[in-house]
Specification:
Helix content is 29%, strand content 24%. With 443 residues, the chain is α/β, with parallel strands linked by helices. Helix 3 links the parallel strand 10 and strand 11. GO terms for molecular function: allantoinase activity; metal ion binding.
Length: 443
């Protein structure tokens, strides 16, 4: 007897754990119920002829600025940008105002997000010297992505930079801890290397050694504490080589912007719009990141979406804030790298879906398989287009990639069986729910 589904995706090239297949996918109750041909009837059928159906892409590092900084971005606008770009779930960072550093503030974010965010979501808890002993309980709250440590000051006031406080944070809890690894003492000592009005001095100030010192320190402390860590936005080949020697305890992330931009072009062309922490570095650094990426060292790709207004970015360096938007351009930038032969589609899927599932212990996400959430990023690998201001949804109103010609774009974003975006048009309502983690579901 033919089955009945809520949704069937037909005629697409579907990327299952076994590889690319010309099959249909049936969805019932928000989950994948069948994969094959001749599945039966459905309340909704989407024709995906000529398109590739990928597991839903997960961006495991975004800053959506709510509460306190909503003039830059908020949970609704940031998540709208995410789904327009093909992202089905995000992990949001704690350096808001106030910081997300207590149970009350985690629950406040979860309440603000419910069916107001367009995509599924989780929120990091910010580590401080004051809440270190409470982090083991805070990381167990459903909807939390874990604990985040800022070893070097970035946007916001969260900072844990001495070994004693870092050790206390690592001793409290057991989930993998996310790390911003730049050495605060070295950067403070090098502030005089910043040149007023010259953002190209940003990577001179926040140099390779600032990153490497912090990465070596946190890996040593993590090993002593027997605590797994995840090092965010790695920018130097030397760090990736070192992390590759310590994969038993450390996973890591690279970003699309560090894989795409190079200092020699970016700072003259973009000025402070290329300023972020850790910095955009040289073309040689970029090529080194690609070399280690193709050796399998990075586990995930995150956008580090960190918007500031055009007016803020117009301030004279170093008064200008660090950070750039990126959640909406994550998928198309990577698809363009696929089109140009730098990245395989299989590796793209690993970095944006199965990788996050493995690193963070996600429940029901990260692959197209029976019983998993019906999350799909449907892409046109051959579409040639230009990133235009009218397509950008972030409240900050700009992108360093505006005007860039790309090949490959997300045509549809489907989350738990809901067609949230199709051909740049949004659904009538947001359906975002908290991401589920093994650590909070089954601990």
């Amino acid at each position: 007897m033919a089955q009945t589904f809520d949704l069937i995706l037909k005629n697409g090239t579907v990327h299952t754990p076994g590889g690319a297949e010309s099959v249909d996918v049936g969805v019932r109750g928000g989950r994948i119920a069948a994969i094959g041909t001749g599945l039966g009837d459905a309340g909704e059928v989407i024709d995906c002829a000529g398109l590739d159906v990928l597991p839903g892409c997960i961006d495991s590092q975004v800053h959506f600025r709510e509460p306190g900084l909503e003039y830059k971005e908020d949970l609704e606008s940031g998540s709208r940008a995410a789904v327009l770009g093909g992202v089905t779930a995000v992990f949001e960072m704690p350096n808001t105002n106030p910081n997300t550093d207590s149970a009350e503030r985690v629950h406040d974010k979860l309440s603000r997000a419910h069916h107001r965010m367009w995509c599924d979501h989780a929120f990091y808890v910010g580590a401080t010297a004051d809440n270190a002993e409470q982090l083991g309980e805070l990381e167990r709250i459903p909807g939390t992505a874990g604990v985040k440590i800022f070893m070097g000051a970035s946007t916001g006031s969260l900072l844990v930079d001495d070994d004693d406080a870092l050790s206390r944070v690592l001793a409290s809890g057991w989930r993998r801890v996310a790390i911003h690894a730049e050495d605060e003492a070295r950067m403070n000592a090098r502030k005089d290397l910043r040149v007023e009005g010259d953002p190209s001095s940003h990577p001179v100030w926040r140099d390779d050694e600032s990153a490497m010192i912090a990465t070596k320190r946190i890996i040593a402390l993590a090993r002593k504490a027997r605590r797994r860590i995840h090092i965010l936005h790695v920018t130097t080949p030397a760090e990736l080589e070192y992390i590759g020697q310590n994969k038993d305890i450390a996973t890591c992330e690279v970003t699309p912007q560090h894989l795409t931009l190079a200092a020699e072009d970016a700072y003259p062309r973009l000025g402070t719009h290329a300023q972020m922490n850790p910095p955009i570095r040289s073309g040689a650094h970029r090529e080194g990141l690609w070399r280690w990426l193709n050796q399998g060292v990075p586990d995930v790709l995150g956008s580090d979406h960190a918007p500031h207004t055009i007016e803020e970015k117009a301030k004279v360096y170093p008064a200008s804030p660090s950070g750039m938007p990126g959640v909406q351009t994550l998928v198309p930038l990577l698809l363009n790298h696929v089109a140009e032969g730098r990245l395989t589609l299989r590796r793209f899927i690993e970095l944006t879906s199965s990788g996050p599932q493995r690193v963070f212990g996600l429940v029901g996400k990260g692959r197209i398989a029976l019983g998993y959430d019906a999350d799909f990023t449907v892409v046109d690998l051959k579409k040639r287009w230009t990133v235009g201001s009218d397509w950008l949804a972030s409240r900050c109103g700009w992108s360093p990639f505006e005007g860039m010609d790309l090949t490959g774009k997300a045509v549809g974003t489907i989350i738990r069986g809901h067609r949230v975006m199709w051909e740049d048009a949004l659904a009538n309502e947001a359906v975002g729910e908290p991401v589920r983690f093994e650590a909070t579901e089954f601990s």
